[in-house]
Amino acid sequence: MNNQIHEYKTLVFDCDGVVLNSNKIKTQAFYEATKHFGHKPAQALVEYHVANGGISRYAKFEYFVMQILKQDFDVTLHQELLQHFAEAVKQGLMACEVAKGLDQLKAQTPNANWLIVSGGDQNELREVFAVRGLEQYFDGGIFGSPDDKDTILAREKANGNIKEFALFLGDSKYDYQAAKKADLDFIFISQWTEVHEWKTFCQVESIWNHMRLFDLVK
Predict the structure, then answer these.
(1) Crossing angle for the helix pair 149-158 and 173-181, nearest 10 degrees?
(2) Strand-by-strand arrangement of the 10-13 sheet
(3) 134, 98 Cβ separation under 8 angstroms
(4) Which of 84, 56, 63, 81 has the alpha carbon at shortest distance from 144?
(5) Which of 21, 47, 148, 159 has the most other CB atoms within 10 Å of its CB?
(6) 79-125 per-position pLDDT tens digit
């Protein structure tokens, strides 16, 4: 982190585990969506999901079909899995805890536009954020899959929506890698992360970290 929080022109937030306490909801939803294939394949997907936080559900269910079930890719099956997952996760997203400090942090960064860049489904995110009154914070837009974070960050930088200097707030290794690739500063938010060895990871990579978004409020 090279600047004080109020100096950034853009703040990019991951959703799950940063703005919403929804990591466990989605982990359980991956199991629920695939449990009819048996416990072992469903649990293998859960483990892959946890190890690859921040990657879209589209990629994870493709992995499930081709690498866990050892089947050729099937568009119909892939869509069915996505639908089962969406049904399992939506209710939880509507009710889960929201990170404290958004109002204060927004007031502290009046010259910065805010974006959500998530592995979650874009349409689902926009609906949830609208219903829960959260879209007002993210004047730079709410973005998600099927585009991956690398694609979103590159596109939004190219069109001037992500301005220098920009800060990414995430809770996964993929968030850090995406921020680094896009040349954004990064802070690891640890409160709800599913990265078990996050302390070691942050130490090895020299990553600035905080427990909560509220810790950034001065």
Answers:
(1) 30
(2) 141-145, 113-121, 10-13, 166-170, 185-189, 208-210
(3) yes
(4) 56
(5) 148
(6) 999 999 998 898 899 999 999 999 999 999 999 999 999 999 999 99
Amino acid at 34: T
Q: Which of left, alpha, beta for 175 (phi over 0: left; psi -120 to 50: alpha)?
A: alpha
Dist CA 73 CA 155 (whole Å): 28
CA distance 176 to 3: 17
| Nearest C-alpha neighbor of 143 from the set 80, 56, 53, 52 | 56
Burial (CB count <10 Å: 0-12, 13-18, 19+), residue 73: exposed
How many Cβ atoms from other residues are within 10 Å of residue 61's Cβ? 24
Question: Would you put residue 70 in left (φ > 0), alpha (ψ -120 to 50) or beta?
Answer: left
Percent helix / strand / coil, the chain, rounded to 5: 55, 15, 30
pTM: 0.88
| 71 C-beta neighbours (distance < 10 Å), count | 11
Within its chain, how far is the Cα of 153 from the centroid?
13
Rounded Cα distance, 108 and 106, in Å? 5
